[in-house]
């Protein structure tokens, strides 16, 4: 007796989509008289998770993260990174954990049970790196924060808004280089502002 025919499920229906897919176009854009003043690097495949300390357990949280994961918990408005892995302050008792891979913090929920709530944000946020000689000038167009090196330098972080869109961003180095995280549902709107603001400097998307 023959087996009943089945209709295969189209593979494309199950293919994961990057947060910037269909939104950002790789290559050079905007003013081209000189070398691009802005480089936008799409940070796909990163692992992101929010960590919220339970009442009265912040000291325990710091100890576990240091001993089991080698992570330092930054103070308010700061970051603590070792390469591409680290923590970004988000609010009192709250941090964003960043890993180069989505599997980087798989062990966090079990390790922090009863000490902190851990929520995977890897698919919930879009992450872009902004660098180049005009990076600070670009962000100053939309951020209501003093970005002068004396006020906001490497290792600093903020939760604010750009073009009425909530963002979390932090400065990686004195280049300057910034990482910006935005809710994935607002990625298209945010990118519209970003490419418009970067056009006068010339920008490269990588």
Automatic annotation (TrEMBL):
<dbReference type="InterPro" id="IPR027266">
    <property type="entry name" value="TrmE/GcvT-like"/>
</dbReference>
<dbReference type="InterPro" id="IPR007375">
    <property type="entry name" value="SoxG"/>
</dbReference>
<dbReference type="Pfam" id="PF04268">
    <property type="entry name" value="SoxG"/>
</dbReference>
<protein>
    <submittedName>
        <fullName>Sarcosine oxidase subunit gamma</fullName>
    </submittedName>
</protein>
